[in-house]
TrEMBL record:
Keywords: Glycoprotein, Golgi apparatus, Membrane, Signal-anchor, Transferase, Transmembrane, Transmembrane helix. It is found in: Golgi apparatus, Golgi stack membrane. It is a single-pass type II membrane protein. Its main location: Golgi. The lineage of its organism: Eukaryota, Metazoa, Ecdysozoa, Arthropoda, Crustacea. One of its GO terms (cellular component) is Golgi cisterna membrane. Its EC number is 2.4.1.-. PANTHER family: CHONDROITIN SYNTHASE (PTHR12369), HEXOSYLTRANSFERASE (PTHR12369:SF11). The keyword Endoplasmic reticulum does not apply. One of its GO terms (molecular function) is glucuronosyl-N-acetylgalactosaminyl-proteoglycan 4-beta-N-acetylgalactosaminyltransferase activity. Belongs to the chondroitin N-acetylgalactosaminyltransferase family. This is Hexosyltransferase. It is an enzyme of class 2 (transferase).
Length: 716
């Protein structure tokens, strides 16, 4: 239904966008005197003008449809010219409904607060709101059409949709559909003139069949282009599903299926047939390991110059894309279950880029579970979701430079294929399928897994005191399920022997917290970190969860949660990337002995130690299966890289990500060439130099203190 003034803009835009894709016929009904230059199927209704409200136009339109098309179609949809229709979704929806019965489908209305009780409707009567579209089955239309003139003579309001509803109820004896879902299926945006002028990446745009109102006809073309992009992604998703199905059938039947790659055309697709998993790629060398980025209110990226920064617009765009896809899948069965789940926020998550396979997400999301059938309720829930945006197919072709520049100018964007795998917990990572988890909150009655802290120590009693204060506040006061094993070595020549002080401190804490489990092992030898960790591990059972940590570290209760979450017996080892502080004399302009805030994370005060592998959590059984630590390595360094390489070769999955609560507190490193072999000495020197300060801070220091450069020139 349209008017003469809208034929060359709104009506034309409808016909050129969704109108040509309708699975049936479309016609534009206007006044008797309407004229247009647009090539549209226009029907001029005799004796009808464009006056508002359009009661006569609406009823005569129904009469015309019944008389001319009544026996040719199963359904009839009355729509305004400011409506957009997802025609493919409309067809699927109507094919799921029995068309042989009288149907009057739309978004139910009873009037707003001012109108309620003044529309001639009883408390249990309703009408279908005209804006988002009204659908009638053939039987309904044929029952109502003969009586339209009678309905026009008995109008009770100025609203044509109210009067059509009254006429349908009187002569077809059916109301508009009483359904909570219809407000999302036939969607009306209450912002009216500014509707759909902003970002289209909205939940209602993705899940609705009709979108209303679109007052500016140019926005209809914009919306149609966006919807076509969504359709491309749906088709690409179906392509991936078929490729995976082919691969699965080939494996089960042991039939060698033809490869999907076309190397002559430069097309690769076979990787799309790989099983759904976060373990598609098994690195064999340290440099091949892909690190997860941690995101919460900020982004923590070990490879970034700024280690803690605001989540970028591109990352936000990706998160919005993937969460929209997730919500579409999780709500696909809403009708059957009588509930809908709304997305509220991402509490935290991990993102990793696998260039040859996929962009991968692990998100912890806050959702609202809304039950509208039976006993109505709204319950907040949290859900883990494991998601992948697979890449491909990859197209390779040679092009001249001028062709390439032209393509860059004309390419509108990169098509993405998104598929979402929803899981109930990290322990199920190796059994990926499309099962949607139940929408009830998980049980919180289970006692958290016990963590065994294994801490090597040689001297450095003040540092140990600070570590134990953290341990007291995080673990002892909170009664965390932990065990502490300190492996204490005899001091080096010339150093103060503080072993008795260590035991006294532990004894004092045990007296204050009698239920705690803390042990000090004395090692009567020179310090060797590998030996310390092996001695500590010897105190644990095979199914014990161990956390190898140094006294230089600070940590929080969130660290314990991540250790339990990311360390999976027999499947996964957690190698967190820790944040390492620079020398505070450079980064904070204070003495290294002063007290300062260790929770501050930015590019001025520290860096992500992406090359460090000393802090790790694993089960004792995994340590044994990879061959344990090399206890022949004496002193500092080397043992962590050796263990990491053993884990890589074992095939056990490594989860590596930045942990914003694991902070390596600055301390000056003493690199003694007499006690360290060459590789250890070089590693020690590298660590020492990297902890002075950020490059831009050091440059500024040199520029502000030219006497330093003068001294170096005089003393090369």
């Amino acid at each position: 239904m349209t008017a003469n003034e809208f034929l060359d803009n709104r009506a034309k835009a409808v016909y050129e966008t969704w109108g040509k894709h309708l699975p049936g016929k479309i016609a534009f009904f206007s006044s008797e005197t309407s004229t247009t230059n647009a090539d549209i199927p226009l029907i001029r209704l005799n004796g009808v003008d464009d006056s508002y409200p359009p009661q006569k136009k609406s009823f005569m339109m129904l009469k015309y449809m019944a008389e001319h098309f009544g026996n040719h179609f199963e359904y009839f949809m009355r729509a305004d010219d400011d409506l957009y229709v997802r025609t493919d979704k409309l067809e699927l929806f109507l094919r799921s409904v029995n068309s042989s019965n009288p149907r009057f489908i739309g978004q139910t209305g009873q009037g707003n607060k001012e109108e309620f009780g003044h529309l001639g409707l009883k408390n249990d009567e309703n009408f279908c709101m005209g804006g988002p579209g009204v659908i009638m089955s053939r039987q309904t239309l044929l029952m109502v059409a003969p009586h339209v003139r009678d309905c026009l003579k008995n109008l009770h309001s100025t609203h044509e949709d109210v009067e059509v509803g009254r006429c349908v109820r009187k002569y077809a004896n059916i109301p508009c559909t009483w359904s909570y879902e219809m407000q999302n299926i036939l969607y009306h945006n209450k912002s009216r003139n500014v509707a759909y002028t902003g970002p289209l990446k909205q939940q209602e745009v993705h899940r609705a069949i009709t979108l209303h109102p679109i007052k500016n006809h140019t926005l209809l073309y914009r919306l149609h282009s966006y919807i076509q992009g969504l359709d491309i992604r749906i088709n690409e998703g179906e392509l991936v599903r078929l490729v995976r199905e082919l691969a699965r059938v080939g494996q089960e039947t042991r039939v060698s299926l033809p490869r999907l790659d076309d190397h002559n055309a430069g097309i690769t697709m076979s990787h799309l047939g790989m099983e759904l998993s976060l373990q598609k790629w098994a690195p064999s060398r340290e440099e091949e390991m892909k690190v997860w980025d941690f995101i919460s209110r900020a982004a923590f990226q070990s490879g970034a110059t700024n280690p803690r920064h605001k989540i970028t617009s591109s990352m936000n765009e990706g998160l919005k894309d993937i969460t929209l896809e997730f919500m579409e899948i999780i709500n696909r069965v809403s009708k059957e279950r009588g509930r809908i789940i709304d997305f509220k926020d991402v509490l935290y998550g991990y993102v990793r880029w696998q260039p040859t396979y996929a962009l991968e997400y692990i998100l912890d999301m806050f959702l609202l579970y809304k039950k509208y059938r039976g006993e109505k309720m709204v319950v907040p829930v949290r859900r883990h979701a494991y998601m992948q945006i697979p890449l491909g197919p990859l197209y390779i072709r040679e092009r001249r430079e001028e062709d390439f520049l032209e393509a860059v100018q004309t390419t509108s964007g990169v098509r993405q294929l998104v598929e979402v795998v929803v899981k109930n917990g990290l322990t199920e990572m190796s059994k990926f399928n499309y099962k949607i988890p139940p929408s009830e909150p998980p049980s919180t009655t289970m006692k958290p897994k016990k963590i065994h802290f294994i801490v090597p120590l040689s001297g450095r009693f003040k540092t140990f005191q600070r570590f134990m204060e953290d341990f007291r506040q995080v673990c002892l006061v909170r009664e965390e399920n932990v065990v502490l094993v300190v492996v204490s070595f005899r001091p080096e020549v010339g150093e103060q022997d503080t072993r008795e002080d260590v035991e006294a401190l532990i004894s004092s804490l045990q007296f204050d917290y009698p239920n705690s489990a803390m042990t000090v092992l004395q090692a009567n030898s020179s310090f060797a970190r590998a030996l310390a960790l092996e001695l500590g591990a010897s105190q644990c059972e095979d199914n014990s969860l161990m956390f190898f940590v140094d006294v230089d570290m600070t940590f929080s209760s969130a660290t314990l949660d991540r250790i339990r979450l990311h360390t999976i017996k027999g499947q996964q080892i957690y190698y967190p990337v820790v944040f390492s502080e620079y020398d505070p004399e450079f980064s904070r302009k204070i003495s290294s002995t002063d007290t300062y805030d260790h929770t501050l994370i930015n590019e001025d005060v520290g860096y992500w130690r992406s090359f460090g592998f000393g802090i790790v959590s694993m089960y004792k059984s995994e340590l044994k299966s990879v061959g344990g630590l090399d206890t022949s390595i004496m002193g500092w360094g080397g043992e962590d890289v050796d263990l990491y390489e053993k884990v890589l070769k074992s095939g056990i999955q490594i989860f590596r990500a930045a942990d914003p609560d694991l902070i390596h507190v600055f301390h000056r490193v003493n690199c003694d060439h007499h006690t360290l072999d060459t590789s250890q000495f070089n590693m020690c020197q590298g660590t020492r130099y990297s902890t002075y300060g950020a490059a831009h801070v050091l440059v500024k220091t040199l520029l502000e203190n030219p006497n330093i450069l003068a001294y170096k020139r005089a003393n090369p």
